[in-house]
Amino acid sequence: MASATMTMPIETPAEDSAARGEDDSRRWLQRLGASGPRRDAAVVELHGLLLKAARFEIDRRRASLPHLRGDDLEDIAQQSADDALFAVLSKLGDFRGEARFTTWAYKFALLEASVKVRRRAWQGRETPLAEDAWAVLADTAGRTATARAEDTELFGALREEIEGSLTEHQREVLVAVTLNDVPIDVLAERLETTRGALYKTLHDARRRLRTALAGRGFRIEGIREEAP
Amino acid sequence: MNDRDKSKAPEREAVLARLLGPDGPELGCEECFAELDRYVELDLAGSDPDGNVPGMRAHLEGCPACAEDFRSLKALLEETD
């Protein structure tokens, strides 16, 4: 009698890890979808994870808040965790299982904390004027001796197009975010809009500048910022 | 180009890059946030994040706030995993 052989699938470490992640995510959803003490315990545990993420983010950014004491920073962490918990619980239906549940949840806490820190760091500060930005452009253009004439021409054209081709709102957003380093969340709060809406404005302004400069014969292909 | 010029060249490129933004299609901030968890896990696993989430890298090049969120989530996972 021929011996029967069975081929068992061999899981790679990555597949094994992914399977564990799926099981873990399923357990989170089951517990948060339950009722009574089981759900209460899951909510408390989730808040603990979000608080850990918020503290992690605030610790990374504490250099931007030298005037705040430890208690103030802890308050920001607690508020961030509370707001993230509300967001996660109200968006559970959006979780698609394409990453681990904890990774998905962490991003809400990091976002809440980073936005709160940026806003706190800019509290009471004026948004710089456009004139400050023109100084940045002029200073940058004059830095390279061998390319000075070319750069002066390019940066001059840029300023002309920023002033002449963009709408006032596009110009305000572009100058604040790209030349004056105003965080987009801070600007969004001051203009009573969202990060996404402001980025769309920025994107449209950049497209318009690229088109205008290309139309004037400047070679701007390949100019790009390094991804993080 | 002398040494001083060399040291300033990246600044020129950085200012131009910030003003002109990424060249090509990119996600918006809401789409970026929706995909961020998946993108970071793919990145950490070395599983072609840019092939799986087109337009994400360009957005991270163009949006400083979303780029910071990416770096934070990646750093948190690296520390906790």
Structural notes for this entry:
- The complex is a heterodimer of chains A (228) and B (81).
- With 228 residues, chain A is mostly helical.
- Chain A has two domains: 18-121, Orthogonal Bundle (Rna Polymerase Sigma Factor, Chain: A), CATH 1.10.1740; 130-215, Arc Repressor Mutant, subunit A (Orthogonal Bundle).
- In chain A, 69% of the residues lie in helices and 0% in strands.
- Chain A is built from nine helices and no strands.
- Chain A starts with 12 loop residues before the first helix and ends in a 13-residue tail after the last helix.
- Chain B has 81 residues and is mostly helical.
- In chain B, helix 2 runs parallel beside helix 5 and helix 4 crosses helix 5 (64-80).
- The longest helix of chain B has 18 residues, at 3-20.
- Classes of the chains: A mainly alpha (228), B mainly alpha (81).
What is the share of helical residues of chain B? Answer: over 70%
Helix/strand class of chain A: mainly alpha
- Determine the N-to-C terminus distance of chain A: 62 Å
CATH topology of the largest domain in chain A: Rna Polymerase Sigma Factor, Chain: A
What oligomeric state best describes the polypeptide chains here?
Answer: heterodimer
Number of helices of chain A: 9
Instruction: Determine the N-to-C terminus distance of chain B.
Output: 46 Å
Q: Percent of residues of chain A in beta strands?
A: under 5%
Largest interface: A-B, 57 and 51 residues
Number of strands of chain B: 0
Task: Please estimate the helix content of chain A.
Answer: 55-70%
| Tally of individual domains of chain B | 1
Strand content of chain B: under 5%
User: CATH class of the largest domain in chain A, anyone?
Assistant: Mainly Alpha
Number of domains of chain A: 2
